[in-house]
Specification:
about 400 residues, mainly alpha, Growth Hormone, Chain: A, 16 helices, about 80% helix
Length: about 400
Amino acid sequence: MDGDALAKRNALVLAGAQALGGASPAIVISLGGIVGSQLVKNQAFATVPVSLMQLGLAAGVIPAAFMMRRLGRRSGYVIGALIGAFGAAIAATGVAERLFWLFCLGTFLCGLYGSYVQSYRFAAADTASDTFKPRAISWVMIGGLAAAVIGPQSVYWTRDLTPTAPFAASFLAQGVLALIAIGVVLALRAPPVTQAKSSGGRPLPEIMRQPKFIASVIAALVTYGLMSFVMTAAPLAMVACGHSVGEAALGIQWHVLAMFAPSFFTGRLIARFGKEKLTTAGLVLTALAAVVGLSGLSVAHFWIALVLLGVGWNFGFIGATALVTDCYRPEERVKVQAANDFLVFGSVAIASFSSGGLLSAGGWDSVNWLVFPPVAVALALVAWQALGKRPAAGAG
C-alpha cells in the first residue's frame, strides 16, 4: 500500500505524540479528585478539577480546529503542547500554595491541551486512503498504551518529591512531558489543513442531519461521556471504600491500558465486522462495566469494571470516529471534525461535572445505575442507522 506511506509515517509520529500528550489527562484524572478533596471543604466539589479539564477540552476544540486550519496541524500542535506545559505549571503552583481555584485553572488549561491531542486521530486519517483510515486511527490510539504507563508511573515516582506539597511534582512532570511532545510533533509531515477549503462543501446542518452522523456522534458521546462519568468517580469511590491512593492510581493505569491496548487490532476488527458492530460491542461492554461495578466494592471489582470500561471506550469511540469520517467530503472535514468533537467533549464535561456530586449524594451504586439508559439510546440509534443503511451522500 505505497499510496499510504505518508499516512503510515504520520500515524507513527502521532502515536508518539499521543503517548506523551495522553499522559496529561491520566495524571489529572488520577490526582485531580484526590488533590481537590484536600483543598476544598465540601467534598461534592472534589472532582471539579477533573471536570474543568474536560470543560477545557470541550472549550478548546473549535478554537484549536480553526487555529490549525490557519497555521497547519504541526504549528497548532506545538502551541497546544506549550499550553499544556503552562497549565501543568499552574496546577503545580495551585497544589503548592493550596489554592483550589488556581489548581482548577491549571487543570482547565491542561484540558485545552487535550483538545489538540484529541485531534491526532483525525490528523492520521487526513492523509489515509478509505481502507487505511480505521487502521490509521487505531495506530494513533496505540500511543495511549505508553500514556497508560507514563501517566500513572509519573505520579508514582514523583508524588513524594515535594513533601510539603504532595503531588505538586507530579504536575511538574506532566509539564515536562508536554514539552518533550513538541519535539515529536515537529516530525509531522501532514499537508496543512489549509490545503482543503474548509469553508466549502455543504452547510453543516445538512451534514449533521445524516443518520450516520447522528448515530456516530451519539455513540461517541455516550461511550466517552459514560467513561468519563464513571472514571472520574472511581478513584474517590475506591478511597472512600478504604482502598489506598496507590490502588486507585493503579486502577486508573489498568483502565487507560484497557482503553488503548485493543488498538493493536481494533482497525482489523472494523475491517472484518464493520464499524457499526464494533461500536455496538463497545456500548455493550460499557454496560457490562456498570454491572460489575454494582456487584461489589473490592479492589478486584473496581479494577475489572475499569478495564471493561476502557475496552468499551476503545471499541465504541474508534468505531464512532471511523463512522464520522464517512460523513464528510475533504473540504468539509475541519468544520465537521470540530462540530463532532465539540458535541462529544461538551457532553463529556457535563458528565464529569455531575459525577462528583452524584457520588457524594448517592454513592458508587448510583453512578453505575445511570450508565444503562444512555447506552440503550445509543444502541437503538446505531441499530437504526445500520438497518436503514444506505450510501451517505457525498461521503469521503
